[in-house]
Amino acid sequence: MTRGRPVTKALDEALLIAKTRGDVMKFCPDTESACDMMIRTSVHLVFVRIKRVCKIRCTKEEIGAELQEWIILLRSFPVSESILCELWVYTKQNSWRYFRVGSSGLEEIGRDGNPVRQPEKGPAITGRDVTEGEAGTTPA
């Protein structure tokens, strides 16, 4: 099920991100491990799997299709309001995206674990009206 070398550098960075959310328990890497770490907060246990992807600027459906086997493994955890599963993806250029895995699919979240607010659909914006930072950005 695994391909390539272990995600040591990315796992170190992910641990730093996870520590901002709560207490972290890192699991020993194993071919049968469903997740890489667990974050314990005052209200949640969050099981996290970290995977490298080649293309990060794509839809969550495309990421879900590429990493379907890992999503199935994460869905094997008993999910409740206090137990959550997340998939964190990154590129070798150190870009990250975060997703909560639920029974209905992937929900994009920020590095803080809160859902990413989707932009409201409004009138089309021309290139002259876009200010720096509003277009072409990717989630953290």
Task: Please give a handful of descriptors for the protein shown.
disordered C terminus, 140 residues, 3 helices, Trna Endonuclease, Chain: A, domain 1, 19% helix
Overall description:
It is a single chain. By secondary structure, the chain is α+β, with helices and mostly antiparallel strands. The protein has one domain: 3-Layer(aba) Sandwich (Trna Endonuclease, Chain: A, domain 1). 19% of the residues lie in helices and 26% in strands. The protein is built from three helices and six strands. The protein has a six-stranded mixed β-sheet, with helices on both faces. Strand 4 and strand 5 form a beta hairpin. The radius of gyration is 16 Å and the shape is globular. The two termini are 28 Å apart. The model is unreliable at 123-140 (pLDDT under 50).
